[in-house]
Amino acid sequence: MRQRIILILLVAILLLPMWFIAGQGEPSSETVEIDQSVTDIRPVEGFIDAPTKLSPSQVGVIVWVALLALLGVLALFHRFMNELARPDGDTPPTAADGGTVGFDWMETEDRWIVGYDPPSDSVIGLVAMGGLTALTLVFSALFTGEYLTFARTQYFGIYAFGMFMSLTGLTVSYYAWFMPHIEVAERRDH
């Protein structure tokens, strides 16, 4: 709990000055719009009403907050997938012969295997990976279609986010369901 509070305080110390500077913003100016009598393209139309003009400092703060939020989402997603694939994985079982599970290249005089949890190789993992692969293909097709055609609305960011999160899900799913989890103890001289 103490580490979380320290982490939140560090992030706040870094972000508060940036928020203050970003709050100043740029002076207001006239909005430039596309002539709707010529074309139907609406590049700023989206799901949420958003400001049409931001200063570089405001964009910087938004990007940093988005990156920190993405880091938190990825960490939670990784824990969720690992718990889903190995619900009893809090303490991996030790091998029956005292830690030797056939990885001789991993063991030395100062390092040995103390726990081995084999991959589950379940059908649920295959279904999850198949669904995430299909989702990745859909988002990449939408992204490509948005780029190559005259788009009526431009959702590049949403499609790219969906594509990259699907790829992240594929990576985490493979790790959770199809990779063994090995716990290694190592003797160190300090």
UniProtKB/TrEMBL annotation:
Protein name: Uncharacterized protein
Transmembrane helix keyword on record: yes
Top-rank lineage group of the source organism: Archaea
Protein species of origin: Halonotius roseus
Membrane-spanning intervals of the chain: 59-77, 123-144, 156-178
Annotated keywords: Membrane, Transmembrane, Transmembrane helix
